[in-house]
User: What shape does this take?
Amino acid sequence: MQAKNSPDKQKERTFIESARRAQIVAAAIEVIADQGYGNASFAKIAKQAGLSSTGMISYHFKGKDDLIREVVAEFMRLTAVHLTGKMDAETTMAGRLRTYITARIAMLDEYPKHFLAVLEIVSAVRAEDPELRGLTPGMAYFFSVQEERFREGQRAGEFREFDPKIMVLALHGAINEATARAAVDPDFDSAVCGRELADLFEAATRKDGMSHDN
Amino acid sequence: MQAKNSPDKQKERTFIESARRAQIVAAAIEVIADQGYGNASFAKIAKQAGLSSTGMISYHFKGKDDLIREVVAEFMRLTAVHLTGKMDAETTMAGRLRTYITARIAMLDEYPKHFLAVLEIVSAVRAEDPELRGLTPGMAYFFSVQEERFREGQRAGEFREFDPKIMVLALHGAINEATARAAVDPDFDSAVCGRELADLFEAATRKDGMSHDN
Amino acid sequence: MQAKNSPDKQKERTFIESARRAQIVAAAIEVIADQGYGNASFAKIAKQAGLSSTGMISYHFKGKDDLIREVVAEFMRLTAVHLTGKMDAETTMAGRLRTYITARIAMLDEYPKHFLAVLEIVSAVRAEDPELRGLTPGMAYFFSVQEERFREGQRAGEFREFDPKIMVLALHGAINEATARAAVDPDFDSAVCGRELADLFEAATRKDGMSHDN
Amino acid sequence: MQAKNSPDKQKERTFIESARRAQIVAAAIEVIADQGYGNASFAKIAKQAGLSSTGMISYHFKGKDDLIREVVAEFMRLTAVHLTGKMDAETTMAGRLRTYITARIAMLDEYPKHFLAVLEIVSAVRAEDPELRGLTPGMAYFFSVQEERFREGQRAGEFREFDPKIMVLALHGAINEATARAAVDPDFDSAVCGRELADLFEAATRKDGMSHDN
DNA sequence: CATGAATGAGTGTTCATTCAT
DNA sequence: AATGAATGAACACTCATTCAT
Assistant: This one.
C-alpha cells in the first residue's frame, strides 16, 4: 500500500532533523563533559540546547541509549578524520606511534569536551551492557588494529619483544589519564604532554641499544 | 597520613557503630564495583548489607559524600599497608618502580572490588567537587611522592631525563586501565600484565644504552 | 439510522479523504483489538496504518473521540448488514432469537477484531462520557428494539413472563463474554458456543412445559 | 550475618504499613470505579487517598501491577466471605445456583465500587499479560469449580444436558453486564435483577417439563 | 492534501534524606 | 542504637494535539 523502493528500512533523515540531532548531541557533549555522565539528564541537556522540553529530545532520539550512541559515533568520526591522514604519511612504525600520540593529545586542545564526554561515558557504562551505546565494536576493532601495528613493528625489527595487548592497554590508559587531567589541571600543557608521552612510548618500545640519535 | 588524635571535632565512635560503618562500606564497595557508581543507590547498598532500610545508612553517615569518602579512605589504608613494606625493601629506584607496579597489579587479584569501586568513584566525581569525597588531598600527595621518587632516580643517574609529572600520569593511567580491563576481560592475566608493565616502564625510564643484558 | 442528507453542517468528504479515514479506522480496530484500548495510541495506529506521523490522524479526525466514534459506527454498519436480513426471514420470535444469537456468534469468526475492539471501547469509556464516542444513542436504540421484540413474543404467547430489560441485559452480557473469550481461548468453538447459547436462551424464554420434543 | 529464622522470605508487614496499603487500595478502587482504569493514575489515586505524592504509593507497592493485584485480591477475599456461607446452606444444585446469583447481585448494592473496579481491570488487562495482576489463577479456578457444580447437577438429574463451559460463560457475562449497568443506570433495581436472573438461569438449566411449582 | 517538527502535561518509578518513635 | 514511614524533587519517556510549510 506504501511503495517503498528503498532496499532497507533506511530512516531517510530530513535536513532539519539532522540539524536538531546535531544540536542535541553537541549539548549532550557539553553537559556530560561539564557536569559528568551521572548528572547529564535530559532536562539539563535540553536546557543547554535551548530547548523548552525534554520531550523534544525523546522525539529526535529513540531513547537515552540512542543519544549516547550518537555522541560516541560523533567522537569516532572526529578522531578518524583527524588521525588517519597524518598517520598514513609516516613510513616507520615508530614514526606512526609518535604521530598518533602527539596528534591525539593535540586534539585535547581542539575538542576538550568531546574526549572528556566519551571518557565519562566509557567509565559510566562499564557495569552496564556497553553494546547498547555502540562502544564495544568500535573500541575492540580499534584496539585490535593497534595491536597488529605493534606486531608489525616487532616483525620489522623496530620494536623490542613485548605483549602488544599490554602495550595498547598502557598507551590508552596514559592517553585517557591525560584527557582527564587536561580537564582538571589549568597548568596542563598539551604540547609538553604529547612530546613526553611520545618519548616515553618510544623508549618503551624500541629495541635495546637503539637510540633516537643514531 | 591522617592525624587521629587531632583536637578537631573528632567523633568518638563506639565499637558497634564502627562495625556498622565497616559493614556498610563493604557493601558499598561491592555494589559500586558490581553495578557501577551510577547504580549504587542507598537502596541497593542497604540490600547488599542485609539492612532493611536506607535510613540506617543515613543514620551512620552524614550523607552520600560521607559514605563515598569512607570507601576511598578504606582503599587508601589497604594500599598503604600492602605496598609500603615491599617497596622499602628495594634499594634502587628502578627496583622500587618494578616492585610497585607488580605489587599493585597483583593486588587486583586480591581485592578486585576495591580497586574497581575507587576507579568508578574517581571517574564519576571528576565533574563534581572531588574534595567532598576526600579524593584530592590523598591523590595529590600520593602523586607528588611518586614524582619525587622519579626525580631521585634521575638525580641518582638511574633514570633518563623526562617530565616526572607525565611519567606519573602515564603510570597511573596504565594501572587504571589494567584495573578496568581486569574487571571485564575474563582472559586477563595479572601476572603477565604486571611483568609486562614493569618491563614497559623500566624501558621507558632507564638511561639510553643501559640495558639489563649488556 | 443516520440521515445522510440532513441539512446540518455535513462535511462533504472527497473520495481520497474517505479512503484515508477508512484506512485509519481499520488500523485503529486492529491495534485496539490486539493491544487493548489503553495501548492504542495515535503513534501505534499510525504505524499500523503505514503512516509516518500521528499528525496525519489528527488531520483527518477532529480528535481521538472522533476516531473512536468512527470505529463504533463502522462496527454498527457491519452488524446491521449481517443481521437484519437473516432475522427478517424468521417468522416466530423464538426463531428470530435463535437466529440472532447464532449469527452474532458466527460473526466472531469473520470479524474477530471488530467485535473485540468495540468491546474494549465500551469497557474503557464507561466512566467517561460515552456520548462523545457515539455509543449511547446507538446502543440504547438497539436495546430498546430488542426489548420490544421480547415483549412481542410474550404477547404472542411464545415467551414466558420475564423482565425484557433483564433478558436483554443477560443476552448481551453472554455475547460479550463470548467475544472476549474467543479472543483469548484458542479452544473456543464458535459453532458450539452459538448453538449452546441459542439453546440456553430458548430454554430461558419459552413457556413452562413447552419443549421442542413433546 | 543476619539471623533469619523465618523459613521463607515472608515480608512481615507492620500494622501501619498494612493500614496504608489498605487505604491506598481503597482509594484505587474508588478511582478506578469512578474514572475508569485508563484514568487511574498514581497521581489521581494519591489525591483520592489524601497523600501528598505518588512516591508514597511506590513506597508501599512494588509497582502498579502490585497495587492492581492487591485490588483484585481484596475483591476476591470479599466475594469469598459473602458467598461461601450462604451457598453451603443450600442442598440442591438449583438452590445453590439461585442463591449464588441473587447474593452476587445483592452485593452490587453493598460494594458497588469493588465490582466495577475489578470489571474495569479485567477488561483493561485482557490484551496484556493477565498473570501479572493475579487474575488468571483465581478466575480459572473459580470458573472450573462452577463448571463442576453444573456437571454435578446434571449427574444428579437436576439439570438438562448443556455445555457447562458455555453456561458458566453466560452466567458471568450476565452478571458482569449487570454490574456495569448498575453503575450507569440510576433506575437499576438489584432486587429485581437478581430475581429475574435467577429465574432466567433456573429456566435455562432445569430439565424439560420440570417447573418450579411441581 | 499532507507532513514532520514541536509542545507541554502526564506517566510510573527511584532517589537521598528527614524524623518521630 | 535503630527503624520504617514519609517526602518531594528528579528521572526517562509517551501522549494527543497544533501548526507552519
Q: What stands out?
A: The radius of gyration of chain C is 19 Å. Chain C touches chain D through 48 residues (CB under 8 Å). The longest helix of chain C spans residues 64-88.
